[in-house]
Amino acid sequence: MAVVEAAMRAILAAVEASATVTDEQLSMLNFLFEKNLERALRILDQGGVQRVTSEPSHRTVFQVTGESKGAAPCYLCFPDHYCSCQSFYFDVVAKSEQIYCKHQLAAKLANALHMCKEVTMSDEELAYLLLEC
């Protein structure tokens, strides 16, 4: 897992530096994340990633839209550590079959590509948002 995370960091650094994803990078990401990459890219194409920053603390969390029927309209996501979706719990935590869920991948890619919708709220509003999950 550490090797995959190191590869992901290197790819994201290159993506952020160029503000684009090459075919070679997409191929590497596809090798690492398979089905979740395709789903994450669909979320990106739909503009489904918001970076929420609170003031004055500058804490940041991502809200990522769901694409499954009957799913929550969006999930709260800390790209390196947590997502409020069921896939994160089952595939990442319980089964250890994936390193990241599609929402975490979408948040990481959107952040690197500067494709996040920016939302600012107060620290108090962010606290309430976190409590709703």
UniProtKB/TrEMBL annotation:
Q: Which domain of life is it from?
A: Eukaryota
User: One Pfam family, short name please?
Assistant: SWIM
The SWIM-type domain sits at: 62-112
Q: Which UniProt keywords apply?
A: Metal-binding, Zinc, Zinc-finger
Q: Does the keyword Ribosomal protein apply?
A: no
PANTHER family documented for this protein: ZINC FINGER SWIM DOMAIN-CONTAINING PROTEIN 7
Protein name according to UniProt: SWIM-type domain-containing protein
Lineage, opening ranks: Eukaryota, Viridiplantae, Streptophyta, Embryophyta, Bryophyta
